[in-house]
Structures are given as C-alpha cells and as structure tokens.
Specification:
It is built from 9 helices and no strands. By secondary structure, it is mainly α. It has a domain of 147 residues: Transmembrane di-heme cytochromes, Chain C (Fumarate Reductase Cytochrome B subunit).
Length: 218
C-alpha cells in the first residue's frame, strides 16, 4: 500500500478519536438541568426534533431560502458518499465499479460539489452572510467541496489524481475535529437538547391549533 493512503488512514483514526472525545465530553455533561415545572412530553418532542423540525417550513428562515436549503442537503449527501467511497477504494478499484453506478455517483457528487461552491460564493457576496462568517466557514466549505471534486477525479482517472485525492482526504480528516466540521459530533446532541428544552415546556411538538392559526411553525 502506498504511503499516502496509509497516512489518510492515520488521519481518519485521529479524526474518529477526536470526535469520540467530543461525544464523551457531551455525554458526561448529562441531561440539561431544568428548574421549571414539566408540562410536556419530552420523548415526543425528541422525535419531532429529529424529524419534522428539520423541515424548512418549520425553521425560522430556511423556508425563505429553499434553493440554499436544497443545495445544503445535496452538499451533505455528497460528503457522506465521498467518505464512504474513501473506505470503499481500499477494497475496490474505482475502475471496477459498474458504468451505470459510476455515472450515478459522479452525477450526484458533481451536483453536490457545485452546490458547495455556490453556497461558498453566496457567503462571500451576500453582505449579511459575509458579516456572520469567519475563516473557519470558508475553509470548512473549501476542504469539503475539494474532497468531493477529488473523489470524482479519482473515480474517473485514479492514476492521475491518486496523490491529490489522498492529500485532500488527509487535510479534511485532520481539520474535522478542530473546525466547524466537528458539528458531525455535536449535531445529535444539539437536536437532543432542543427537543428536551421545548418538550419540557410543551412547545414541541406544536399543537394543531397553533399550526392552523399561523400557517408556519418556527
């Protein structure tokens, strides 16, 4: 096995260990301490937090920016596929993948990468987003999108792009635990806390009367 694939495995192990540390740290904190009187169903609210509450029409402003929301979904799906392919490439040659599957994967990753860069450009040119952004936002987007592009390139021409592909994987794995990409470890904890907080207070899930009265659930 070549040196860069080995280094990428080491980088991935470092990433997993660091993210596991984040998760253990969260678990040790335990449930949020509540001092108010319980008035709702926390379990039902938790289910809502991970399902319906993720829909754009149940968010504060996502329903006003559906193209960006959909682009973000493609971007996350493409990232997951790219990471799974990184594992698969240790066992299967990219050129041995059936043609139809290869075309489907390449199409999805291309759409995902384009979505990523469009979101990056939007963050750069829209003043409100630019004022809320820092270098971590830009670098996280760039490394993730670049890895997707290199995955497509390695899929098509593995001998040409093998070096750049594994370098992009190494950089991404090492950056995940230290940048905003570590939300891969914090996402579920954040949704749990939201469900617990609003479920305890009988805010989530919203009542049918509230839905029918305002038309949208923020």
């Amino acid at each position: 096995m070549m040196i860069l694939p080995c280094i990428s495995i080491i980088a991935a192990c470092i990433c997993v260990i660091a993210c596991t540390f984040h998760i253990i740290r969260l678990l040790r904190l335990g449930k949020p301490k509540e001092y108010s009187q319980k008035s709702g169903n926390v379990a039902t609210a938790e289910v809502y937090s991970y399902t319906s509450a993720m829909m754009p029409w149940h968010k504060e402003s996502a329903y006003k920016h559906l193209p960006s929301f959909i682009g973000g979904i493609f971007f996350h799906v493409g990232t997951l596929i790219s990471l799974l392919l990184w594992i698969a490439f240790f066992f299967v040659s990219p050129l041995s993948v059936p043609f139809l599957w290869m075309m489907l994967i390449i199409t999805v990753l291309t759409v995902s990468a384009i979505s990523g860069y469009l979101l990056l450009i939007k963050r750069l040119i829209v003043k409100k987003l630019r004022n809320l952004s820092n270098w971590d936002d830009y670098l996280s987007n760039f490394l993730t999108t670049f890895f997707q592009i290199m995955t497509v390139s390695y899929f098509v021409l593995p001998q040409w792009f093998i070096t750049i592909y594994y370098i992009s994987a190494i950089l991404l794995f090492l950056y995940i635990p230290v940048g905003k990409l570590r939300h891969v470890a914090y996402f579920f904890a954040a949704r749990f806390q939201l469900g617990y907080f609003y479920g305890w207070r009988n805010v989530w899930p919203p009542s049918k009367k509230l839905k029918s009265s305002d038309g949208k659930n923020n």
